[in-house]
Amino acid sequence: MNIPDNILEGLINIWRQIGKVSKMTVYNRSMEPTIRKGATIVVAHCINELSVGDIVVFKNIDHLTVHRVVKISKNRKANRLVITKGDANKNLDPPVREDLILGKVIKIENHEA
């Protein structure tokens, strides 16, 4: 689902101001079988620490992506970069700056297809 950049930025700013948690519906199959298409996820927006294995929501050009953290590294400027991958995908995603990560999935409510 593509979201115009200005609307996506507005949503991100609201989430960061509100903190706490939000519910979202997943619209693709990249995280199956862990998260099925149509599932509802609960996302915590205040992230104290990310770990390999966490499932995160991040801004990816014109949409939000829900993928698993597979590696955390630093670039030359000492900024943390997060490498993610959908459980059902063969390839890793490009590195994501930590400031583009909106939250961590804390609950999955899979609905029967």
Poorly predicted regions are none
Q: What is the spatial order of strands in the main beta sheet?
A: 1-2-7-3-4-5-6
CATH architecture: Ribbon
In the CATH scheme, the class would be: Mainly Beta
Separation of the first and last Cα atoms: 19 Å
Q: Sketch the major β-sheet.
A: 7 strands, antiparallel
In the CATH hierarchy, what is the superfamily?
A: Umud Fragment, subunit A
Question: How many domains make up the coordinates?
Answer: 1
How are helices and strands ordered from N to C? HEEEEEEE
- Percentage of residues in DSSP E strands: 35-45%
What is the fold-level CATH name, i.e. the topology? Umud Fragment, subunit A
| Structural class based on helices, strands and sheet pairing | mainly beta
Radius of gyration: 14 Å
How many beta strands in the DSSP annotation?
Answer: 7
Helicity level, as a percent range? Answer: 10-25%
Number of helices: 1
Global geometry: globular
What's the pLDDT, averaged over the residues? 84
Give structural notes:
- The structure is a single chain.
- The chain contains one helix and seven strands; from the N terminus they run αβββββββ.
- The chain is mostly beta strands and 113 residues long.
- Strands 1-2-7-3-4-5-6 form a seven-stranded antiparallel beta sheet, with helices on one face.
- The longest helix has 14 residues, at 5-18.
- The mean pLDDT is 84.
